[in-house]
Amino acid sequence: MSILNNWDQWKNFLGDQLDDAQDQGMSGKVINKMAHHVGDYLANHVDPKNEQQRVLSDLWSVASEEEQEAIASVMVKLVENNSTK
User: How far is 39 from 74, CA to CA, in rounded Å?
Assistant: First the structure.
């Protein structure tokens, strides 16, 4: 099963990546910028695999650049405590 198929596994995966970035000393600003790039990539190249991802994809598709940055920042906050490490 792909991590994209399960929302909780996806959040845990993102939480692990966030922990790694923070452990390497990345600033919150850099992490949020990278989250925005990931959001762009997913929106353009990955078909949502569950309802939660579909909602995020739909929101992303109608959001301005500034709103996308806000969505990315909120996703970072959402997964901050979802690390499996």
Answer: 12
